[in-house]
Design brief:
The chain contains four helices and nine strands. The chain is α+β, with helices and mostly antiparallel strands and 184 residues long.
Length: 184
Amino acid sequence: TAKKVTNIECLIESNLSAGGPETARPFSFAASAQASSSVRVNLQSLRKFLWGALLLSAGFAAWTWFRPYAWNPDPAARCKVVGVQVTQDQSYFWVEAHLKMNPGMTHDLQKPISLAVTGRLLEPADTTFSSTNGQGTTDVWVKFWLESKDIAGPIALQLNDGKLSIKANDGVPSQSKYYISNHW
């Protein structure tokens, strides 16, 4: 058995000295690979490509996180949409819009809030107001009960003297979800 072990060791040594398994891999860090070889250049190119892809992905993630719900909201509405929670309930949908009041503005309680959908106006099923440290109303949540035909087209929220886009495109949402853009 001692002779067999010696033969295995000899085969391993001869295989390694002949550019064996560690140089057969395309991205090897073996000592036999020269600094100016194409393997080294390809590894550097791959590293640069991966860093570029990482930076591009991070930039896109930051843009989607910090972009507004809708571009150019109506200043007459005195607030902006932060997000919309859509929950499906059989063939109906609950649509709850979270609004943040513009700094220095207040919501006029004498003016009604309504949702404009395909040729008609809907009254909210629930309205919740929130404030921080006695500053007056800072957040408003408005909840609507919609049929699937009502949610199929564009939707706008009318409040104070302005109009805010809740949904800008056509189509029924396929799942219950919190949307941070008016394109759903």
